[in-house]
Design brief:
Blueprint (H helix, E strand, L loop, with lengths): L1 H13 L7 H12 L8 H31 L4 H18 L15 E12 L2 E9 L5 E9 L6 E7 L9 H12 L3 E5 L27 H4 L1 H9 L5 H17 L4 E10 L5 H10 L5 E4 L36 H4 L3 H6 L5 E6 L9 H12 L6 E5 L19 H15 L23 H7 L4 H9 L18 E6 L3 E2 L3 E10 L4 E10 L9 E5 L4 H7 L1 H9 L3 E5 L18 H11 L4 H19 L7 E6 L28 H11 L2 E3 L5 E3 L4 E5 L38 E5 L22 H8 L6
Helix pairs in contact: 2-17, 8-9, 17-21, 19-20
């Protein structure tokens, strides 16, 4: 009698499971290794391919519309100043930990300035300088000045383009020009450029194959920014800090006129930090940011009447072009440029400019009218377009003579800067003459690579960030589409597309069940992977067959931007995956947060619509990325990401871990989902994000690196969760020993999952 009661109790707990014999399991493995997804209508496939791009476009459109609506509510100077104050504060805080101190102020000089040489010219001289940034990394700069010095001299700082560092001919032209006109002109190397480069490719001899030597500083901006993000900083933030340090240097010079500090931002990547720095540092009395705030070189002209105001932009690998949080917090480029008022502003465009229809110009004119300072606003522009050839557009490397001609008029009116002889003259030197470092100084000052400096910062506990709070909109769910069940000989497959949330989020979901299962509430495994469902099933056929043979159901969702909703396997610098991840950052989100939300939706669906026993529930994450050999070579230029070693893909492990560590999700309407993950298995997880600071090259995908204010430490797992990690890798995708160093028993992942979760076994 007691035995019968016990049997009944067991059946009620786990149901009646028919276990497959070895031959059947082998046959199932074979079938799964050739698995094809149940057929889906072509129009639905296209809808899923377009889902993430359309979602991001919708968010951009809403962000631009929200910014326009905020502007239309402003009608007085007082209202603008209140708006400006809040937006500049949010901009500053977005740039990194260094900007979030109480009573923040622009940085002063960090130690002494080293003058490493002087070059004399006719009516001017150039000092070659080395001085420390506020975060400890040396800055190399050329300081042009009149010879002899004069009284009350204006001071220029030039934020160079991403094309070339401080020795470029156009930069020399501007330095000698304004030095002869009685001004100081400071031309520093941006972090990662010139003598501050963080990669080893200085000449064509540094690599065995042809590559673009002059573009490496630009391309490796991607790596520098990701490494800065790991310590809660950003490339834009460091650019701004360095330019502010330059202002402090100018303020300490003999004869400087502190009321005449002029910051120029070059056409390609120099205008962005110029505008941001000028918005934050009111010691700058005039700014000339090129190609930032309004129409871009790619914009088609003429602008139509009533043009849509959509200059918030979208994400890509160039982090200074798409600032994190900019859409969420409303400091779009036009706001940043407008925040310079009532100080003097030269609104610059590299090519032709449609002044009459440019909506940003109209806003700038309105802002300056509120201060009764319309004469503090000027402009400069070139001719033609980015692609015009007959005649060619007014391309330049930094700021061309065509653009300077119009700037001279404003500078003469505002600061009485008069050109010697009334016109420009050119005197250029070999770039080697303008470099600041030599072997003797390197031995004396012992500069260290940025990644080593950041390593030390990472150990600073004050830089740890708080993780996000999970807010999920799962208030509405409906079936967009479902396939007919497909028999696999021992298993049954069915595919669903779930439409949920008010903004019509789409979640493709494949469910695999044992054919002979009779239990009402089967135990289950939720799979988290970036790869498509079909690829995962084929590559992990043996594991899946073992789970199915034990009576366990398996759910494989295509989480946001993965599988059917993703752009493919390319995770490189210029990939669509990077662009989408960067765009999300502009909304204060990231791929982890989006995919965790989908995990909650899948969990809720499985419980309510597929009748799973979610008290016996495991999460399995797998990158499917094979580790690199231990001797793989990483000294490769950034020209073509396809030549790079395969990087790790820790995103699935991060998503699974955060989903397991955050059991409670709260919806926007106050309802909640409580999950109980008892088992977490991970394959291809990362030993530590800190290993990305071991060298100059970052192989991590963009969406695996937290941007400033997100946690790089991850969330702590409950002691009640059983965790196993196989094939743990470092940031260079080389396998390392598992953290727990446990000799797992049973050996296979499937058998371990079954045992740890007390699931039925053979």
């Amino acid at each position: 009698m007691k035995i019968s009661i016990l049997v009944i109790a067991l059946i009620s707990l786990i149901g009646s499971v028919t276990f497959a014999d070895d031959a059947t399991q082998k046959s199932l493995t074979e079938a799964l290794s050739k698995f094809t997804l149940p057929e889906m209508p072509d129009e639905l496939k296209q809808k899923l391919r377009d889902y993430v791009p359309n979602d991001l476009k919708r968010r951009r459109d809403e962000g631009n519309a929200r910014s326009t609506a905020e502007w239309e509510k402003i009608s007085t100077r007082e209202e603008w100043e209140a708006f400006r104050k809040e937006k500049v504060k949010l901009l500053r805080e977005s740039l990194g930990v260094s900007f979030r101190t109480k009573d923040w102020k622009p940085p002063q000089l960090n130690g002494n300035v080293e003058t490493t040489g002087t070059i004399k010219g006719e009516g001017y001289r150039i000092d070659k300088l080395l001085y420390r940034s506020s975060y400890g990394v040396w800055i190399s700069a050329n300081l042009y000045m009149p010879d002899p010095l004069r009284e009350k001299m204006p001071g220029f700082i030039i934020s160079h383009a991403h094309h070339t560092p401080k020795e470029n001919g156009e930069l020399q032209d501007m330095g000698t020009l304004w030095a002869r006109a009685g001004c100081y002109v400071l031309v520093p190397d941006h972090l990662g450029h010139g003598e501050r480069r963080q990669h080893p490719f200085k000449s064509k001899d540094d690599y065995s194959k042809p590559f673009q030597v002059s573009r490496q500083d630009y391309y490796f901006r991607y790596d520098v920014n990701l490494q800065l993000n790991l310590v809660g900083e950003s490339l834009m933030g460091c650019f701004a800090l360095d330019l502010m340090t330059g202002v402090s240097l100018l303020h300490g010079l003999q004869g400087i006129d502190k009321g005449k500090i002029i910051l120029l931002g070059a056409v390609a990547g120099g205008g962005d930090p110029c505008a941001v720095t000028a918005a934050l540092d009111e010691r700058i009395t005039c700014a000339a940011p090129f190609n930032f705030g309004g129409p871009q070189p790619e914009t088609k002209y003429p602008l139509p009447e009533g043009v849509d105001f959509n200059y918030g932009g979208s994400g890509g690998w160039e982090s200074t072009r798409n600032l994190a949080y900019s859409y969420r917090d409303g400091f779009l480029p036009w706001v940043i440029v407008g925040s310079i008022a009532p100080r003097r502003l030269i609104y610059g465009h590299e090519f032709a400019w449609d002044r009459e229809h440019d909506p940003v110009w109209k806003r700038l004119e309105k802002i300056y009218s509120w201060y009764d300072k319309p004469d503090h606003l000027s402009f400069t522009h070139g001719h033609g377009t980015l692609t015009s050839k007959d005649p060619p557009g007014s391309h330049c490397t930094h700021i061309g003579k065509t653009h300077r001609k119009q700037m001279h008029v404003a500078l003469a009116k505002w600061f009485d800067i008069q050109l010697p002889g009334g016109e420009e003259s050119t005197e250029r030197r070999d770039s080697s003459e303008l470099r600041c470092w030599n072997d003797e100084l390197r031995e004396k000052l012992k500069p260290e690579p940025l990644h080593l400096t950041l390593r030390k910062m990472l150990e600073d506990s004050s830089r740890s960030q708080s993780a996000f709070v999970t807010v999920v909109d799962f208030t509405r769910k409906k079936v967009e589409w479902q396939s007919e069940p497909v028999e696999l000989g021992g298993a049954r497959a069915q595919q669903w597309v779930i439409n949920y949330a008010e903004d019509n989020r789409l979640l493709p979901l494949l469910i695999l069940k044992p054919s002979g299962m009779t239990t009402r509430k089967p135990p289950g495994v939720l799979v988290v992977t970036r790869a498509g469902k079909e690829r995962f099933v084929r590559e992990r056929a043996e594991l899946i067959a073992e789970l199915l043979a034990a009576g366990i159901s398996i759910a494989l969702p295509d989480l946001y931007n993965s599988g059917l909703t993703g752009p493919g396997a390319d995770l490189g610098r210029r990939s669509s995956n990077t662009g989408r991840s960067s765009t999300l950052a502009m909304f204060g989100s990231d791929m982890v947060k989006q995919q965790v939300q989908d995990c909650y939706t899948a969990f809720d669906w499985l419980e309510k619509h597929d009748d799973w026993d979610l008290s016996r529930f495991a999460v399995l994450s797998d990158s499917l990325a094979p580790p690199n050999p231990q001797d793989v070579k990483y000294r490769i230029p950034r020209d073509d990401d396809s030549q790079m070693p395969l990087g790790p893909d820790p995103l699935p492990a991060r998503v699974a871990r955060d989903f397991a560590a955050l059991p409670l999700a709260t919806s926007t309407n106050g309802t909640s989902i409580f999950t109980k993950v008892g088992v977490l298995y991970s394959r291809g997880s990362l030993d530590s994000l800190a290993s990305a600071l071991d060298q100059h090259l970052v192989l991590l995908p963009h969406d695996a690196v937290p941007f400033p204010t997100f946690s790089h430490k991850g969330l702590d797992l409950s002691d009640t969760i059983s965790l196993r990690q196989d094939q743990v890798v470092d940031s260079s995708n080389r396998e390392v020993a598992a953290k727990d160093k446990e000799d797992h028993d049973p050996k296979t992942a499937a058998a371990w999952i079954i045992k740890q979760h007390r699931m039925p076994q053979k």
